[in-house]
Amino acid sequence: MTKPNKLSRRERQIMDILYRLEEASAKDVMAEMEDAPSYSSVRTLIGKLVEKGHVAHRESGLKYVYYPLQTREKASKSALNHLLQTFFDDSPLRAVNSLLDMSARNLSDAELQELADIIAAKKREAKEREAKQQDGEGAASEVVLTEDPESKESAERQQNSDGRSV
Q1: Does pLDDT of 131 surpass 70?
Q2: Is 7 in contact with 18 (CB distance < 8 Å)?
Q3: DSSP label of 164
Q4: Is there a contact between 30 and 42 (Cβ–Cβ < 8 Å)?
């Protein structure tokens, strides 16, 4: 049996075409492929993608029209994750540095500023998350303190001795 998450080079090529076109018949896919195999081979490959759960189809007249089941955003995140693990030791910093090295000459001042703004926003988000986590830890320790059995008994004794609650 084939592994559902492992795609051959041709299967990845078909998925790229389907994401680019959003939906396509086997004939359309074949027309978009470099060094396309035969029509029956394209149909077989698409059939494997259907089996693996990556592609579905609908009828359109006498032909099937195929489309990817995973959103483009989810697929791109998965592909980027794979790229990070494979080529950049799971380091976003190394990946971004490599991208900047490749395209630094092509980035405008406005694009560089946008990158700086994105980094600043991510720093703010991280600080906010950290502050929330610290607040959550503080609240948890307060709960532990009020749950202390000796403190409960002491409060109950004080309440009983003067008849009012503390």
Answers
A1: yes
A2: no
A3: S
A4: yes
